[in-house]
Amino acid sequence: MDGPRAVASSELLSLGELVDTVFRSGGTGEMFRLFPTFLVEDNAHNLLVFRDDSRIVSHVGMALHWACIEGCTVGVACIGAVATYESHRGQGMASQLMDFACRQAQEWGTDFMMISGGRGLYRRLGAADVGHDYEVEIDAAAATALQDGTFTLTSFHTNDLTACAALYATRAAHYLRPVDDWEAFTRAKVCMCNDVDIWVVRRGETICGYCATDYDTAKSQVRVFEFAGDAVAIAAALKPLINHYEAAAVGLHLEPGDRTLHELLTQAGVGGAPAITSGTMLLLDVPRLIDRFQPLFQARLGRTATERLAVEAEDGGAYRFTLGSASWTAPGKMEAAQFLFGHPEFPQRPAPFDAALPISTLWYGFDYV
Question: CA–CA separation, 328 vs 311, rounded Å?
């Protein structure tokens, strides 16, 4: 058995056979098609594998990103396409690959991992469900009330890329996407493992918003996997989307930064359900993460109070957060992640932590792995 190590370029075909077998019932090349910036040669150094004889038998894939969350830059490792042939399971290869990925990610400068799953392999490491988001469904009547004839919905064109990227960069929490990633995503038209249509919302010649969608036949629902732009423009696009797909409703995932759109939907009679973000979060370097968010904490607490905010690792994997004379101890990484980034069922934080937290989470969108 050879590994854990990065896959070689000459082994990508074998890797493709593994992930297609596990995730796509053997559909040749399907996983590589669905992940045009992840399962590629340029990212081979982050595709970690075991090889048995002549074939790749176990894999943990990683994509390393910088992201901006409420004005603070953080390092994020996205983990996905974790697969082992059934004949080779139970030998601890996936665990070894995850450990290898964690070490490699920390050396790069990663603060936390986003993992596209919640299996025991990740839970044992401390991966947590996080987020204080909302899921909403807008029916045709509510969408009609939000429609605004000054906006038009048209298909995305390559000339629209720069404007759409600029709109995405205005989201409170977003990945810092290189332009070549944008080009790959919009060329492939796949998002979160789905083939999508990409739309732009215009007022006159000005692009005010965009969204990536598909149609769920079983639910008669338009699913929006990513959107950005002016809240009024996005709201105005909902009825044209319903009309195009002949759907009954549109489903949206809203983050805290979407509060204006959320308010518009509420005024139109649309309810919502508290939700977590996609996947799970595994904290890697908690003290460094606290340092990364110093500008955010200063904005919320002030400079003096932020200077008294600290975290200390304790025996047994616990983390003790202090803010002046107040303190709170997380038994492990899972509880620490939910303390920092929220969860619909997380209890009220003690004062004065409640003024500083929670922090917004990242929604994958096109960066899903």
Answer: 10
Q: Over the chain, what is the mean pLDDT?
A: 97
Distance CA 247, CA 227 (A): 19
What values do phi and psi take at 332, rounded to 5? Answer: -165, -175
CA dist 128 → 45, 134, 135, 334 (Å): 26, 18, 19, 5
Listed by start position, the domains of the chain span: 2-110, 133-275, 285-355
Question: 247 Cβ partners below 8 Å, 6+ apart?
Answer: 215, 220, 221, 222, 241
Q: Write the CB contacts of 159 (distance below 8 Å, at least 6 apart in sequence).
A: none
Q: Which sign, positive or negative, has the C-alpha torsion 46, 52, 56, 57?
A: negative
Closest alpha carbon to 79 in 90, 89, 65: 65
- Distant-in-sequence, close-in-space partners of 4: CB < 8 Å, separation ≥ 6: 48, 49, 50, 93, 96, 97, 100
Residue with tokens 């989307």: 241
Instruction: Tell me the β-bridge partners of 294.
Output: none
Crossing angle of helices 231-245 and 259-267, in 10° steps, is 60
Q: What is the mean pLDDT of residues 54-63?
A: 97
Class of domain 2-110: alpha beta
Distance CA 174, CA 115 (A): 16
User: For the whole prediction, is pTM greater than 0.85?
Assistant: yes
Identify the DSSP state of 359.
Answer: P
Return the pLDDT at 25.
85
**Mean pLDDT of the region 349-354:** 94
For 187, residues 6+ apart whose C-beta sits below 8 A from its C-beta are 36
Q: What is the pLDDT of residue 17?
A: 97
The hierarchical CATH code for the domain 133-275 is 3.40.630.30
Residues 6+ apart with CB under 8 A from 12: 41, 44
Query: CB neighbours (10 Å) of residue 92?
Result: 10
User: Strand 319-323's sheet: what is its strand order?
Assistant: 309-313, 319-323, 326-330
Query: Tokens 């500008």 appear where?
Result: 295
245, containing H or E segment: helix 231-245
